[in-house]
Design goal:
- By secondary structure, the chain is an alpha/beta fold.
- It has 3 domains: 103 residues, Rossmann fold (3-Layer(aba) Sandwich); 120 residues; 158 residues, Histidine kinase-like ATPase, C-terminal domain (Heat Shock Protein 90).
- Strands 2-1-3-4-5 form a 5-stranded parallel sheet, with helices on both faces.
- A hairpin with a 2-residue loop joins strand 9 and strand 10.
- Helix 1 crosses helix 5, helix 5 runs antiparallel to helix 6 and helix 6 crosses helix 11.
- The N and C termini lie far apart (62 Å).
- 29% of the residues are buried.
Length: 396
């Protein structure tokens, strides 16, 4: 049973909330900031209902302390207070609270807000768990890889490790991508709250915003469904659009590029024919190349404040080969590393930040489908990895 901590020094408020919530949650009560802090640290609640005006440590101070602590910073906090000024609400939300309700309140509304924020926290926790599980699986796969001597088994284990790494990367990417629609949902709902307190919330306004909410819920659902499908994808060779696979891969990591200030230029020849391969494995290759490009651009961006990172993607047909070029201006590969870039266990990243398996697996997968992956390197300027698969004429 989920645990709610009520922090308020007014008995009538405590009684009303406890009566409403104790049927569905384990409820703890504190009547001061100091007592609440002690309870929260001793037994982490799933959500805190917090009054502002209390003797000694007030709600704002307690919220600030909880958000600064590593053990309590992710606990959702909802202010329930008589302070109704806009600047009070702004201050509470700025300190990290997820919601701000004013007294007198409806216990039904409080209960609904609690359910909403507990659901959001549950989704966030599930995403973090997914990342941890994928990371653990990757570590197990790498341990297995190093223990085996036979070349055939080592190759299979490498490909399996690469798949797990790609899934871990996708889980992390999806967490970033999902934040944007969640923010839209949160901002829209907070806007309704503000209008409702001013008696200005109308049915027309709510109906007008419903499509925005549905669109963003749909975007979240689409992302989750795509990762689920990719994690249990068919291993059969089929015909598919490389442009579609590229768009799917970008949908999982576009926000990470934007968060690093990386401009993406996309140029797709609409007349490019389909290719024959295993779709999930080709997407794994594209995700790996995109991840490497993002790393190179972000690293250079940190070192040079005048740098403008750019990623250019182009899909064309060349000599009956369907080619996707992934070009960045991140400085390129060191000349001494260029010859070994596709070798197993070779990496240009610092210790602990790369397995050296990604590009080697990409090479193996492309050769498996009679394609190839090549590097066009321009040291000091940038690198271009080109993924090529046979076109229709090549397959005949």
């Amino acid at each position: 049973m989920e645990k709610i901590l009520i922090v308020d020094d007014y008995p009538a408020t405590i009684r009303a909330l406890v009566v409403k919530l104790q049927k569905h949650y384990h409820v703890d009560v504190a009547t001061s900031g100091a007592e609440a802090l002690e309870l929260a640290l001793a037994s982490l609640p799933d959500l805190i209902l917090l009054d502002v005006m209390m003797p000694g440590m007030d709600g704002y101070e307690l919220c600030s302390i909880l958000k600064e602590s590593k053990s309590t910073c992710n606990i959702p906090i909802i202010f329930v207070t008589a302070r109704a000024a806009e600047e009070d609400e702004e201050r509470g939300l700025a300190l990290g609270a997820v919601d701000y309700l004013t007294k007198p309140f409806s216990t039904a509304i409080v209960s609904a807000r609690i359910r909403t924020h507990l659901d959001l926290k549950r989704h966030h926790d599930n995403l973090e768990k997914m990342v941890d599980e994928r990371t653990e699986e990757l570590n197990k796969a790498l341990t297995l890889l190093k223990a085996k001597k036979e070349s055939e088994y080592r190759q299979a284990a490498q490909i399996h490790s690469g798949r797990l790494a790609a899934l871990g990367e996708m889980a992390t990417s999806m967490a970033h991508e999902i934040n944007q629609p969640l923010n839209v949902l949160s901002i829209t709902l907070q806007g309704w709250q503000l209008l409702e307190r001013r008696d200005a919330l109308t049915k027309e306004k709510m109906l007008g915003d419903v499509q925005i909410l549905l669109d963003n819920v749909g975007r979240i659902t689409k992302l989750i469904d795509h990762v689920r499908t990719l994690g249990h994808a068919s291993q059969d060779v089929c015909s598919f659009s490389l442009a579609k696979v590229l768009q799917n891969a970008l949908s999982l990591c576009r926000m990470q590029f934007l968060n690093h200030g990386i401009e993406i230029n996309l140029e797709i020849d609409e007349n490019v024919p389909e290719v024959d391969a295993i779709e999930s494995e080709v997407e794994q290759v594209i995700l790996n190349i995109l991840s490497n490009a993002r790393y190179a651009l972000a690293e250079k961006n940190q070192k040079d404040q005048h740098f403008s990172p750019v990623l250019s993607l182009s899909l064309t047909e060349q000599d009956n080969m369907i080619c996707l070029a992934v070009k960045d201006n991140g400085g390129g590969v060191e000349p001494m590393a260029e010859e070994n870039i596709f070798d197993p266990f070779f990496t240009t990243k610092p210790a602990g930040q790369g397995t050296g398996l990604g590009l080697n697996i990409c090479k193996q997968l492309m050769l498996k489908f009679d394609g190839d992956i090549t590097l066009e390197n321009n040291p000091g300027q940038g690198a271009c990895f080109k993924i090529c698969l046979p076109g229709p004429d090549k397959k005949e």
